[in-house]
Amino acid sequence: MKNIINSLNPDIVLIAGDLIDMNLEPVLEKNMLKELSDIKTKYGVYFALGNHDIYGKKAALLTATLREEGVIVLRDEKVLVNDKLYIAGRDNFSKKPLKDIIGDYSDKPVILIQHTPDTIEETVENKIDLQVSGHTHKGQFFPGNLFTKRIFLIDYGLKKISDSNILVSSGYGTWGPPIRIGSSSEICLIKFYN
């Protein structure tokens, strides 16, 4: 995965959660998160926790380990990047009001990393320029996609609602059985223009 990302020569990498599946110990034992420090960007790798990152009360240890590897973990907070845009990260379960996370940002665009795409109305209301989410895996295998389409306003793809763009990715990995039927793993490349 890191080789694919590096071949894209990204300015920024956004990871919308679920790096682990509940059990952090094997990941730490095999030093798997070290791979993230090999991702080359101009302005950093940004991460917001997903539901599987939080299960088992391992969020604090995962956060600390990722930060040691140079990943910028955003837990209900925002940062200014290169004095050009804000990136905000929202914890999957806290659902802290977006207004409290983003504060005053009217002078620059805002990208929100939020694992589960379940508060799109709030994103639109707060005029977030881009929300990046995952969680659904685009159903991962049929007929899962039929359920995700009924549960989420946007379960996959890029959609514009009012002034906000919402991107829900199927993600790179899998959950449960390591298979996909009717859904592909993906790394999304987003290009911004003035």
UniProtKB/TrEMBL annotation:
The first-level EC class reads hydrolase
Where in the numbering of this chain does the Calcineurin-like phosphoesterase domain appear?
3-138
Which InterPro entries does this chain map to? Answer: Calcineurin-like_PHP (IPR004843), Metallo-depent_PP-like (IPR029052), Metallophosphoesterase_sf (IPR051158)
Q: Where are the transmembrane segments?
A: none
SUPFAM superfamilies in the record: Metallo-dependent phosphatases
Record's keyword annotation contains Phosphoprotein: no
**EC identifiers of the protein:** 3.1.-.-
Q: What is this protein called?
A: Uncharacterized metallophosphoesterase Cj0846
What is the native source organism of this protein? Fusobacterium ulcerans
